[in-house]
Amino acid sequence: MAELKARVLAGWAGLQVIFALFLLVAPNSFASPFSQTRSIISSGMIDYPRIEVTVNASVTIGLNNLSLGFMLDHDWEGWLQDSVLRECASNASFKIVRLFDWKWSDLRPCISWNESTTSGAFNWSNIDLLVKRIFGIGAEPLFCLGAFSESYTGERSFCAPPGMAINPETALPYLDSWATYCAEWVKHFKSTGCPVRFYEIVNEPYFYFGWTDSVKLDNYVKLWNAAARKMREVNSNVMLSHDAIMFGQVMDYWTKYGDDVDFLSFHKYDCYATEGPGYFDNAAMLDRAESHYFNFVDQARLKWFNSRGKLLPVINSESGFSSTWKNGTDPRITQMIGAVWTALELRMGVLKGLSGNIYYAFSSSASICRNSATGGYGFGMVNSDDDKPWYPYYVHWMLGNNMQVGDPIIYSNSSSNDLRSLAWIHNETMNILLIYKIEQESKITLQGLEGSVNFIKIDETISWRTPYLQIGIIDSKAALSMSGYTVVLLQTPIHT
User: What pLDDT, in 10s, does the model give residues 220-279?
Assistant: First the structure.
């Protein structure tokens, strides 16, 4: 493959752009996410800061492993019943859907549990329909069984099926009951012929054992081992883990006393409040998008390999801009700053070789969340009131439709820390994702492209309350204009 060559001449005034409208949106329809075509060519004589992006299609730096996913939490029933929401998920080519079994608002197929017989009564109808529809959009489910839920008063307790006893000595279910309950999930899907593979055993278990309590950590390891062994007896192909395995003290203990996990898992939220301690401004959030938690992925992967001789896949099984919820969510989640954070996080996921990234959550109601104390529209990437996406959805749409597992990642570099790039080849097309991290205007010039270049872009050139995709065609010798937070995907055929 010959190296692509082109040079962009900066400083031109009145550059011309050729527009191409890819798709038209029918009124009140989600057949396409595109809206009007807009220009990203710079013009005029203002001397904006210049940033150069270099791409070399002849230099492969790795292969993509990342698949995109989302969480269905309180919104599971709406997603199950709303065909437009499911179409929205299908259009973005999501591959993983994570679900809980433990909240009262979530799927709870175990109607009652009999502790004396170690058995339960189940109604799988909602689960079966939901799993069918998840597979129907080209994705597969990841079920998280059990958790320590937090009340508004801050108290936490284990969420077990109705009737399941809690051992007063451990504050956990009795081992045999919990293991049997988890195995019932695997038995059910085996009996129905449904290829459900992924499970996490207890959501965020560090809320139970903390950072220094080795006794509680041992209790949890024994609970996990008991469940994993019974689940694997039913189906040896299940993929089991939990989201605390990558913490240093947990992995050190686990490699001595825990059974094998099948993937490494973690959760990533970069902000924990809307003001005061735990709140971070925009610049800090965009820095944390690329560093927070990612800085120990390689170390955890290597530690497990050195201990067990297996190089495991890594899944970010729950991620979001901010985790604050008691007094309202962070309004920035659905804005362009939230989209830029999402793009930076997914870019790092690709570069770190992650196998999955699951966004929390798929949809939320703007009308309900608007009345919260601090504002915000919930955690969703889609407004469940009208089935219209917010900006972070469009980042997933760009990558989900234009990147697959196994795609070659090629060399790209930005001359400025204000702009991140990621380049890859998919279906004989070169893709260059540009993520502009600051709120000031700049010109972007490109090295390594030739001819016409398609673009798909989101920014806040109009109100963030009405997100849409801007599409068109530019000449590779034109300078791109960034007017603030921007995510743009450039696409051009590979010339050989």
Answer: 999 999 999 999 999 999 999 999 999 999 999 999 999 999 999 999 999 999 999 999
State both tokens at 195.
């290829």
- Is the same domain home to 50 and 72? no
C-alpha span between 210 and 215 (Å, rounded): 10
Number of domains in the chain: 2
224 and 368 in a common domain: yes
Backbone angles phi, psi at 309, to 5 degrees: 75, 20
One domain for residues 272 and 363 = yes
In CATH, what number is assigned to the domain containing residue 495? Answer: 2.60.40.1180
The first and second tokens of residue 369, run together, are: 């969340």
Instruction: For residue 203, list its beta bridge partners.
Output: 147
CA atoms within 13 Å, Cβ hemisphere of 255: 18
Q: Any idea how long the chain is?
A: 496
Close Cβ partners of 432 (under 8 Å, ≥ 6 residues apart): 53, 55, 412, 421, 422, 423, 446, 449, 489, 490, 491
Note whether 131 and 256 are same-domain residues.
yes
Q: How far is CA 355 from the centre of its chain?
A: 11
- What are the pLDDT digits (tens) for 97-128? 999 998 766 689 999 999 999 999 999 999 99
Domain assignment of residue 271, given as a range: 66-400
Look at residue 155 in the predicted model and tell me its pLDDT.
Answer: 72
Instruction: Specify whether 283 is located in the same domain as 396.
Output: yes
248 within 8 A of 302, measured Cβ to Cβ: no
Asked if 313 contacts 355 with a C-beta cutoff of 8 angstroms, the reply is yes
Residues 113 and 167 grouped into a single domain: yes
Q: What is the dihedral of CA 98, 99, 103, 106, to 10 degrees?
A: 140
* Residue that finishes a domain, picked among 400, 420, 438: 400
Distance, CA of 182 to CA of 224 (rounded, Å):
10
How far apart CA 290 and CA 426 sit, in angstroms, is 24
| Domain closes at, from 366, 384, 400 | 400
- CATH code at 242? 3.20.20.80
Residues 366 and 485 in one domain: no
User: What is residue 496's predicted lDDT score, i.e. its pLDDT?
Assistant: 57
d(CA 182, CA 230) in angstroms, rounded, equals 8
- For 420-461, how does the pLDDT look when each residue is reduced to its tens digit (9 = 90+)? 999 999 999 999 999 999 999 999 999 999 999 999 999 988
Q: Please state, in angstroms and rounded to a whole number, the distance separating the CA atoms of residues 32 and 340.
A: 22
Q: At what angle do helices 336-351 and 391-400 cross, to 10 degrees?
A: 30
346-350: long-range contacts at Cβ-Cβ below 8 A with a sequence spacing of 24 or more?
A: 346/66, 346/68, 346/395, 346/396, 346/399, 347/290, 347/420, 347/422, 347/433, 347/435, 348/289, 348/290, 348/294, 349/66, 349/316, 350/64, 350/65, 350/66, 350/403, 350/409, 350/422, 350/424
